[in-house]
Amino acid sequence: MRIMAKKQISKSGAAKLREELDYLVTVRRAEMAQKLKEARAQGDLSENAEYDEAKNEQAIMEAQIMEIQYTLDNSEIVDDNASIDEVGLGSTIKIKNFRTGKIETLQIVSSNEANFKEGKISDESPIGKGAMKKKVGDNFLIEAPAGELKFEILEISK
User: Fold this and answer.
1) Which domains are delineated in the chain?
2) What sequence ranges are listed for the domain Transcription elongation factor GreA/GreB N-terminal (predicted)?
């Protein structure tokens, strides 16, 4: 049996997950129970589409609760007061793509916080992994379907 290293999650990411978990457990569970009660009151359960839908919704919600709880239980919470000397979880970096000359600003976050539209990339993504532990002025290479891409760290901030 291989022991897996715990995934890292920032304090702010863990707090966000705890908040979501609390909402699902305290608010959504009660709403779902009421919805099931109302659907059950409509009579024959074998032909009750509202009841079936409510049961499916409940199952999806319970799966979400379990997934969030698993993530929190099996993650190492790291301080997101990132250093500005070296790229780490929580760092906001400005990088230059040598091939295109394009400069991008990205934040390195844990995989469950990643949202490319918001400029948040996972520490496990190719760029995130390549940038980790680098300093301003350092270059790094990543393998992409289009070939090797080279980037330079221009700036690191919190």
Assistant:
1) 7-78 (1.10.287.180), 92-157 (3.10.50.30)
2) 8-77
